[in-house]
Amino acid sequence: MINKDYLYTNIYSDISDFRPLSNSTYIYAYSPEGRSHIVDDLRKLSPDVSYVELELVRDEKDVIIDKTSGNKYFLRSSNSIKDFFNTYKSDMVYIDVSGLNNRISASLLNNALKIDEERGLKIRVLYAEPSSYKIKQFTLEGVFNDLSEKIDGIEPLPGFASIIPDPVDMIFIALLGFEGGRFTHLIENVQPPSDNITPVIGVPGFRIEYPFVALWGNRQPLGETKSWNNIRYITANSLVDAYLLLSKIRKKSPDSKIVLAPIGTKPHAIGAILFAIKYPKQVEIVYDNPKRKTTRTDGVGLIVECDINSLLAEN
């Protein structure tokens, strides 16, 4: 597959090379990872932008607070998230997913794209790679000791609850990271036909050895299901590559239900979310909602900006 990143993305080696448009809105969240703090530099470089920090409300399910206004919003309510976006009147919105969890990102993107249909909202996703993951080694498949402390269980992302019936022909696509236990858990719950499992691994990884770590970490489920025969490889930091691979698979099986498990890199998860938004009657996302450890990564690597409107309109 020809890489089309250049059509929709800009890549920056340092945050000082990036400038959001004047009078735009920049949505972000802090996490314990350093890469989520690139906004601190942006505030100094581009003070004419509305910076909006979001945070999950403790002990309230799928509720966020806009720390700029103090207002609460409900991720599972389209009207609530639309109210959030309508608070900020700019026509350009940057969603920095570096520090946002996938539940927040999914709801924001789903509803922002609905607003785009109504009033032409321009949406850019920004993502900062880590310079490295703090990986000791993956010698025991199924143990969540390196990146995730536990998983909360399979539950739809906000706005993505599916009522698509299970047809005879179902394709299960797992966008893999390092944690084979998550892959095993999803296979056990979804129970897809072994010959219809397509694992996806990022190549090249953020570091040269990461694809091998992913294969090693997932070796047990890949071997037990023999799905290693169907592995597909896409660029680890490219949501465009993930989206276009899924589009290519759909074209080959236009009548199949596609079940996506975005358990790998953040860009791959965003690509999967966008694909599910584009094809809601055919695509279902299954997600295990991991509770992350606080010290997963070090540093800031490349910074990727993607034009979401053009990607979806042209593909």
Produce a short descriptive summary.
With 315 residues, the chain is an alpha/beta fold. It contains 10 helices and 17 strands. β10, α5 and β11 (197-202) form a beta-alpha-beta unit.
Q: How is this structure best described in words?
A:
It is a single chain. The chain is an alpha/beta fold and 315 residues long. It has 2 domains: 5-131 and 299-314, Rossmann fold, CATH 3.40.50; 134-293, Rossmann fold, CATH 3.40.50. 32% of the residues lie in helices and 23% in strands. It has 10 helices and 17 strands. The strands form 4 sheets. An 8-stranded mixed sheet has the order 1-17-7-6-2-3-4-5. Strand 6 (92-96), helix 4 (102-119) and strand 7 form a beta-alpha-beta unit. Helix 3 (78-87) packs across helix 4 (102-119) and helix 4 (102-119) crosses helix 9. The chain is globular. The model is unreliable at 137-149 (pLDDT under 50).
Give the arrangement of secondary structure elements.
Layout: H1 5-8, E1 9-12, E2 25-28, H2 38-45, E3 50-56, E4 63-66, E5 72-74, H3 78-87, E6 92-96, H4 102-119, E7 122-128, E8 132-133, E9 148-151, E10 170-175, H5 180-190, E11 197-202, H6 210-217, H7 219-225, E12 232-234, H8 239-252, E13 257-262, H9 266-278, E14 283-285, E15 290-292, E16 297-298, E17 303-307, H10 308-314
Parallel strand pairs: 2-3, 2-6, 6-7, 10-11, 10-13, 11-12, 13-14
Antiparallel strand pairs: 1-17, 3-4, 4-5, 7-17, 8-16, 9-15
Helix pairs in contact: 3-4, 4-9, 8-9
